[in-house]
Amino acid sequence: MPIQQVVGPSSRAGMFLVLTIQEGGEATVRDFLADLPGLVRGVSFRYPEHELMTVAGIGANLWDRLYAVPRPLHLHPFAEIKGAKHTAVSTPGDLLIHLRARHLDICFELARQVSERLKWVGEVVDEVHGFKFFDDRDLLGFVDGTENPEGGKAEAAVMVGDEDATYAGSSYVIVQKYLHDMDAWRALSTEDQEKVIGRSKLENIEMSDDVKPSNSHIALNVIEDADGTQRQIVRENMPFGQIGTQEFGTYFIGYAADPGITEEMLRNMFIGKPEGNTDRILDFSTPVTGSLYFVPTEDFLDDQPAAR
Ligand code: HEM
């Protein structure tokens, strides 16, 4: 019954709920967070084979309203990143609920119970039901998630350590809902699409450095720290869509021990590296939301700091 566990098995279905919380709803939210592990148990105990994973994230402004202690080291509102051509928008979000399982029904049932608890104090401002698409591909047709760190490396990438000892074992998450311009994308040849991503489409192989364009998605998202170690995040992106409205998208969700890593990737994508050399994926994908959350441990939910 993993709760607040960020790294886990690949799930076929997912739900993303972003909520805003009204003034005065703080006590209800605190109670809800304390009860969340019990709610999760009530659903997942009956279907352990569905591997339900639940993560609740708390936005910076809500933290200040809930707790009389300073924010965790890296918790801040997501700041818009505006380049000459593309903008990573910042949109409201006090709570993020990220649910994953083998099947959507179990996510839906828990989401319904969450909404039941929060309906008088919160508004769901964004709701996405995602699914894994053939071969773990996104709707652009490329396998998504291949270079995610695994096992111990994934844990190290997402978990806060001694740098903020009070919150060791916690994590941070940034989410963005991207919509794709499928007509423009399909107008590209497969070879040109591969240059946008920096990997081959069918075989899912990374291009060698001499052929990979500097504005490809991969080139701009492989980043290193001063001593040459790769700075990694764990992504759990999911495709979503609506046939009637012809809405096709990717829900980006990136977990990290330090959201500054994800923000550096976003600056590379939206402002460009060097400036102006922006990610080609953005010519076909536009974010319509963007927000940042702190993901506390299960123990924290059980024993929350004093109320403000
Ligand atoms: C429209 C939204 C996006 C789509 C469709 C997308 C798709 C992909 C695909 C197909 C790959 C190659 C396979 C792999 O997962 O390793 C990839 C890699 C990657 N993406 Fe994205 N991505 C999106 C947004 C983002 C954003 C917003 C970030 C960071 C803020 C990001 C960070 C990365 C990273 C770090 C890699 C792995 C690079 C490597 O180590 O090779 N992606 N993405």
Describe the 3D structure:
- By secondary structure, this protein is α+β, with helices and mostly antiparallel strands.
- It contains 9 helices and 14 strands.
- It has helices at 26-44, 60-66, 104-118, 151-158, 182-186, 190-197, 217-221, 259-270, 298-302; strands at residues 13-21, 53-58, 81-82, 87-88, 95-101, 122-131, 171-180, 223-224, 230-231, 234-235, 238-242, 247-256, 285-287, 291-295.
- Helix 1 runs antiparallel to helix 3 (104-118).
- The model has no long low-confidence stretch (mean pLDDT 97).
- Protoporphyrin IX containing FE binds next to strand 7, helix 7, strand 12 and helix 8.
Secondary structure: helix percent: 25-40%
Total beta-strand segments: 14
What binds here, in terms of ligands, is: protoporphyrin IX containing FE
Measured by DSSP, the beta-strand proportion falls in 15-25%
How widely separated are the two ends? 31 Å
Chain-averaged pLDDT: 97
What would you report as the Rg, rounded to the nearest angstrom? 19 Å
Shape: globular
Number of helices: 9
Largest sheet: 6 strands, antiparallel
SSE-based structural type:
alpha+beta
Instruction: Sketch the topology as an H/E string, one letter per element.
Output: EHEHEEEHEHEHHHEEEEEHEEH
The poorly predicted ranges are none
User: What is the total domain count?
Assistant: 1
Characterize this entry briefly:
The protein is of the alpha+beta class. It contains 9 helices and 14 strands. The protein has one domain.
Distinctive features:
binds protoporphyrin IX containing FE; 24% strand; alpha+beta; four-stranded antiparallel beta sheet; 9 helices; globular; six-stranded antiparallel beta sheet; 308 residues
